[in-house]
């Protein structure tokens, strides 16, 4: 009996010790948290599964494509030069670069950063480039708006050069040439300064002479306006020469 009591008291003391440790948190992690064993996953369990390979005896070399951003860079340069061409005259290397870009791009008509309102600035600053641009714009449906912009431009030597070249290169509507000639004649009459007026009269006479000699205009449609213009400025040699040219053409038709 004494032995049994000693055993019971021993077990009770052991239980009390365990309970005190539990309440104090000394046995929480080691007793109640089961250990998790992380086994390595099996390889090639199924036929479709791939096995990772780590070769150590291979050498790798990277091949860089330097032309990845080249097209975007060229496009940005083209837009910058084209925008600059509407503000100032381009240097010959810049002008040739823009021309080559226009001729090499099949989508130049869709990507041209120009509008009918900005065409006069391009004509005044870079007439040679304006001719190339107009030859491309002639393929589009809005070409008539650009011709209207040319008609409404102020009279200037670059504008006369551009119109003369595109008239020789394209088959333009007869109404455009007639309206432009009438606008030139009217602009000369409205210039108050005599020296400036005489200079522009010479330019317009040379322009008309070139159109008539190259048969780019039907003289009979605007014969009266041109003759009146020549008579008004008969003191200018170019106007006299243009009047004689008109008379010689009239005599040939009469004979």
Show the helix and strand layout.
Elements: H1 2-24, H2 28-32, H3 70-85, H4 92-104, H5 108-111, H6 119-125, H7 127-137, H8 143-151, H9 157-169, H10 174-189, H11 194-213, H12 223-232, H13 237-254
Describe the structure.
It is a single chain. With 255 residues, the protein is mostly helical. It has 13 helices and no strands. The longest helix is centred in the first third of the chain and has 23 residues, at 2-24. The radius of gyration is 45 Å and the shape is rod-shaped. The termini are far apart.
* Alpha-beta content class: mainly alpha
What is the averaged pLDDT score? 79
Task: State the end-to-end distance.
Answer: 162 Å
Uncertain stretches: none
Residues in helix, %: 55-70%
Largest sheet: none
Proportion in β-strands: under 5%
Topology, number of strands: 0
Radius of gyration over all CA atoms, rounded? 45 Å
What can be said about this structure in brief?
This protein is an all-alpha fold and 255 residues long. It contains 13 helices and no strands. The relative contact order is 0.05.
Quickly list its features.
0% strand, 13 helices, mainly alpha
């Amino acid at each position: 009996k004494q032995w049994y009591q000693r055993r019971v008291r021993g077990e009770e003391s052991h239980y009390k010790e365990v309970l005190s440790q539990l309440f104090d948190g000394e046995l929480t992690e080691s007793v109640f948290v089961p250990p998790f064993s992380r086994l390595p996953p099996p390889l090639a369990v199924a036929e479709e599964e791939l096995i990772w390979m780590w070769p150590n005896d291979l050498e790798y070399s990277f091949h860089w494509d330097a032309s990845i951003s080249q097209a975007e860079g060229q496009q940005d340069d083209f837009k910058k030069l084209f925008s600059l061409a509407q503000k100032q005259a381009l240097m010959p290397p810049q002008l040739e670069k823009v021309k080559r870009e226009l001729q090499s791009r099949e989508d130049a008509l869709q990507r041209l950063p120009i509008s009918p309102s900005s065409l006069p600035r391009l004509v005044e600053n870079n007439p040679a480039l304006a001719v190339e641009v107009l030859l491309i714009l002639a393929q589009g449906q809005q070409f008539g708006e650009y011709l209207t912009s040319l008609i409404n431009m102020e009279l200037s030597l670059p504008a006369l050069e551009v119109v003369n070249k595109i008239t020789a290169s394209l088959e333009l509507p007869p109404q455009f040439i007639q309206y432009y000639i009438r606008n030139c004649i009217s602009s000369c009459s409205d210039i108050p300064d005599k020296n400036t007026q005489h200079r522009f009269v010479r330019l317009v006479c040379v322009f008309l002479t070139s159109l008539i000699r190259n048969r780019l205009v039907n003289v009979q449609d605007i014969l009266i306006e041109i003759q009146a213009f020549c008579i008004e400025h008969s003191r200018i040699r170019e106007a006299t020469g243009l009047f004689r040219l008109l008379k010689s053409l009239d005599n040939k038709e009469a004979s």
